[in-house]
Amino acid sequence: MQAKFSMEFALAILLLERRAGLAQFTEETVNRADVQEWIKRVNFYVDPEAEAAGFDKMTSILRIHLRNGKVIIGRATMAKGSPSNPMSSEEIADKFRGCAEFAKWATPKTAAIIEAVKSLEQAPDMSRLTALLTV
């Protein structure tokens, strides 16, 4: 549970697995030796430049220090999924697929739900979607 509040864990798992979905936020994953090693490498702190941008910008700055001395810097003014940086329909569908997989829903059911949502405006009523969402 604490992993979801840990920036160190989030960055470590993103570096290791290139994703941070529900399947990664498990006690087993958090306790893996490789994850623990990477957590120790992450130094999370409040950056004065990001702080000066204000709460309406929610700026994040990432600095990666390589062994050869080179520093790679990345930044985001708004998180993906915020009103200023919305997710695309496909990104939303991918996130839903990950949640459905974690819930052990069948792939065809997940695909049918995504298609039903995509065509929601043309649907005569909600009965198809309601039926698909019934567990």
Describe this structure in a few short sentences.
This protein has 135 residues and is mainly α. The chain has helices spanning 7-17, 27-30, 33-41, 48-52, 89-102, 107-118, 127-133; strands spanning 60-65, 71-76. α1 (7-17) packs across α3, α5 (89-102) packs antiparallel against α6 and α6 (107-118) packs antiparallel against α7.
Task: Give structural attributes.
135 residues, mainly alpha, two-stranded antiparallel sheet, 7 helices, 46% helix, 9% strand, globular
Protein architecture, described:
With 135 residues, the protein is mainly α. The protein has three domains: 1-43, no CATH class; 45-86, no CATH class; 89-133, no CATH class. The protein has seven helices and two strands, in the order H-H-H-H-E-E-H-H-H. A two-stranded antiparallel sheet has the order 1-2. The longest helix is centred in the C-terminal third of the chain and has 14 residues, at 89-102. The protein is globular and about 60 Å long. 4% of the residues are buried.
